[in-house]
């Protein structure tokens, strides 16, 4: 199958355009790597490539995850010869079972002797004649035709197509810098990470859990979610951070209603340390204004104060319904619906503060030994490398084995973990 890919936003990138196009080509190669080597060319603001597969539905599924693609078509590549172009246009109409059609031409290669409007008119007339000869009911409709035949005259060849499919838009993954995504097993954070991938960012994933004080569900769900979203960035590093040692320390001095905010600040500091190790420049979370107590403007500001990096919150103005719809589209909805015990609900008050005072929070933190512990939990975290391999699924490789504390060593947590969930 021969395809042509168009991009919109990249086309506006001026001097950096080459870098964006190169990355898009590399990502297309990764998307189809299990279909053998693909021949790719960049031609006058579009990319053409050939894949060894005739499964259009699978092709569409894969293209829906290639950020930077505005739209694409299956094309016939023919010589720059009027007869060959017009014949290809007629075949496109028949293939699409068109009843009405219109021809649109673009001619970046000005060496071709006919102007675009002439091509449109002449090819239209040729197609009508062919239809008449074969007794095929077909007419021209300039507005609202059921089939638009597109002719692109580029680089000593012509590309002719009958159907154009929308791509996901955005920018190619790998052009937008690196982030650390705070990934829970809920609905929001996978969508937030996906949003940033769509803007070209490469997201290192980081999940906090309280295993063995909670069951493995949040860990296992999170690994599944990470595998699903890895499809969009081809390769992910996932940190699974055992948060229990920090929670144990926090429990010793903190009132229950302040713990949520203290947990969050500690998570953010740990994520920032991971960002330093991974050369990431910002954090991303799935927070949405007012969704829960930790997401009031006051509390968000208190959380922000714990971190020196920008905190990106792409869902801040989104409703839960919108987020769930997106989760369905990107494929994380079902896994995010699975039950799990959240580490944040461990030893938490039913009524967390909605307007935490920064001075109180800082005073509590000063009395604790958090920095060392936060460093330690990264050293004990499990680190997994995920690689998307098309129809072969996702390859998983452990880069660092986890070290879990013994339940006996955490008197505060082990005593009360179950009843407070
Ligand atoms: P989600 O927001 O992913 O649906 P949630 O609603 O249970 O999960 P919130 O309590 O709303 O989580 O947390 C707000 C944000 O904090 C999450 O979107 C996520 O970015 C981050 N976060 C919460 N819990 C965790 C966790 N266990 N590990 C990593 N990040 C977390
Ligand atoms: Mg949430």
In words, what does this structure look like?
This protein has 421 residues and is of the alpha/beta class. 38% of the residues lie in helices and 22% in strands. The protein is built from 14 helices and 15 strands. The strands form 2 sheets. It has an 8-stranded mixed beta sheet. A 7-stranded mixed beta sheet has the order 13-12-9-10-11-14-15, with helices on both faces. A hairpin with a 5-residue loop joins β14 (382-388) and β15 (394-400). α3 packs across α4. The protein is elongated and about 85 Å long. The protein binds adenosine-5'-triphosphate and magnesium ion. The site of adenosine-5'-triphosphate has 17 residues, from α5 and β10.
Strand line-up of the largest beta sheet: 2-3-1-4-8-7-5-6
Which ligands occur here? adenosine-5'-triphosphate, magnesium ion
What would the principal axes of the Cα set say about the shape? elongated
Radius of gyration, in Å, reads: 27 Å
Structural class call reads alpha/beta
**Largest pleated sheet:** 8 strands, mixed
Q: Provide the β-strand percentage band.
A: 15-25%
Q: Runs with pLDDT <50, length 5+? A: 415-421
Number of helices: 14
Mean pLDDT: 91
Written as H for each helix and E for each strand, in order along the chain, the element string is EHEEHEHEHEEEEHEHEHHEHEHHHHEEH
**Percent helix among the residues?**
25-40%
